[in-house]
Amino acid sequence: MKLYGSGNTPNPRKVKIVLAEKAIAYQMIELDLQKAEHKTPEFMQMNPLGRVPVLETDDGEFLTEAIAICRYLEAFRPEPNLFGRSAQDLGLIEMHHSQVESDFWFQVRTSWKNGPVLQKMGYQVASEAKVISDANVYSYYEKLNKDLNDRDYIAISRFTIADIILLVCLDFAIHYCALKPAESLSNLWRWHDFISSRESVEPIT
Length: 205
Description:
Layout: E1 2-5, H1 10-21, E2 27-30, H2 41-46, E3 54-56, E4 62-64, H3 66-76, H4 87-113, H5 116-120, H6 127-147, H7 161-176, H8 186-196
Parallel strand pairs: 1-2
Antiparallel strand pairs: 1-3, 3-4
Helix pairs in contact: 1-3, 1-7, 4-6, 4-7, 6-8
């Protein structure tokens, strides 16, 4: 298999963690997004939307969209299970995954899109939108801290895709949006340190 991505960008990182958890051998193809290598005619043949990640399977098929790729990998190598086995676990994992994507990641992306990095690159930003999204991110940290009280994992009693999604989103908020949770949120930091210590999780440099 080949995975096309770029550094610590969130969606490829999700897939890389799943690949590592399942011990699936693959070749990493790094693209320079600043040079628009994801917009070349060759890459656009693999993904007409010009986005990473793209997984090239051993059958020569090209899969796009991080969660779709992760679901493929779950079916390709079912263990360790990351998406749930029982109806209850499936529901809980998907519930937490959906909440993180819609209530947390949406706000983080809004802060990123209206932040200083893109502004320096010449993009038009809305500073008032960033003020609101930053506040929403910090509010969500409070929610997470309560949710993680006496819990090692976010969804069920073991590591799942929900933990992967949350970790990737949280790390992006911390390292690229300067949205660091307060040190007083001990449950959230305990969870972050615990999940980050897994062998499948490469530290952001």
